[in-house]
Amino acid sequence: MLIFFIKRAALKSGFFISYICCMVNIVDVYNAVRDLCNKDQRGFVTPEVFSTFAGIAQQNVFNEMFQELLAANRARKAGIDASRDKSLYKMVEEDLSYFITTRSLSDDVPQPADYDEETQGEYINPADLEASVFRKPEDLARIISIRTTDTDRNLDLIYNSETAERVLNSNLSGPTSDFPVAIITNQIEVFPFEVNSILLKYYRQPKSIDASNGAIDLSSTPVYVEMQAGANITVPDVLNSRHFELPDHYKNELIIEIAKMIGIRLRDSYLSTFAIAEEKAE
């Protein structure tokens, strides 16, 4: 039955086989975690419980990739990183490059105003107030760079509020059209105000892969769904499941992360000890 559904999905899209093989298969991870917990007592890891932890585990692994990049960079500077295709730094960069996204943003978008007597909480247009303010994309994880759309100039990125204040008040280093700056807080504010559109390059948050056609599903995190195929038989529901949007070599890390969270939930010392031992081994 399962093979039939996989074949049917594969026929619907020629990208299914080639795309999914470089992603972490949700079915493989679920089966591994279920067997690790207790294969004779399936109730320990229901599809619903597993799916709850799947998205969190993927986010944890994604965040660790940036830490691994820092560690690899230190090894590179120390001269102990391998060269070319065996370089740890190159491997992590290659994995992260998949999530690089470029988006055009305009400040000509209404923003919610702070409630006061003048605005009465209504939406205002920042361009009308001589302020170049841009909303951060909802899927933004890390900003790589920002450049102006019309003049193609890179903006200096400032994250510290005190540094921003000194730059804006300086007669020598103040922002100009030739040397614009972007102050990053919960939004992006660009100086000078004449900059009304920017190109934002960033790492987006990982989402999932549609198990039925291999397409990226930006609306969902990884989900494992089952369906009845007989009286006491359940099989993976390929049409409604979503694979992890990570390279296949992160499968073990995902299993460890989910096992650790389930071990804490069940107060299972074996699972917690296993997960910690596997993390140290890596």
Side by side, the strands of the main sheet go: 4-8-7-6
Beta-strand content:
15-25%
The average pLDDT value, as a whole number, equals 79
Low-confidence stretches: 1-21, 112-117
Largest sheet: 4 strands, mixed
Number of domains: 2
Order of helices and strands: HHHHHEEEEEEHEEEEEEEEHH
What structural class do the secondary elements suggest? alpha+beta
**From the alpha-carbon coordinates, what is the Rg to the nearest angstrom?**
24 Å
Number of strands: 14
The DSSP helix count reads: 8
For the termini, the CA-CA separation is 37 Å
| Approximate shape | elongated
Which labels suit this protein?
three-stranded antiparallel beta sheet, 8 helices, 38% helix, 20% strand, 2 domains, 14 strands, four-stranded mixed beta sheet, 282 residues, alpha+beta
Describe, in short, the structure shown.
The protein has 282 residues and is α+β, with helices and mostly antiparallel strands. The chain is built from eight helices and 14 strands. The chain has helices spanning 2-12, 16-20, 26-38, 47-77, 88-97, 161-169, 251-266, 269-281, and strands at residues 100-106, 111-112, 123-124, 132-134, 140-148, 156-158, 181-184, 188-191, 197-204, 208-210, 216-217, 226-228, 234-236, 242-244.
Characterization of the model:
The protein folds into two domains: 2-95 and 211-281, no CATH class; 100-204, no CATH class. The two termini are 37 Å apart. Strand 6 (156-158), helix 6 (161-169) and strand 7 (181-184) form a beta-alpha-beta unit. Helix content is 38%, strand content 20%. The chain is elongated and about 75 Å long. By secondary structure, it is an alpha+beta fold. Helix 4 packs across helix 5 (88-97). It has eight helices and 14 strands. It has helices at 2-12, 16-20, 26-38, 47-77, 88-97, 161-169, 251-266, 269-281; strands at residues 100-106, 111-112, 123-124, 132-134, 140-148, 156-158, 181-184, 188-191, 197-204, 208-210, 216-217, 226-228, 234-236, 242-244. It has a four-stranded mixed sheet, with helices on one face. It has a three-stranded antiparallel sheet with strand order 1-9-5, with no helix packed on it. Residues 1-21 and 112-117 have low confidence and may be disordered.
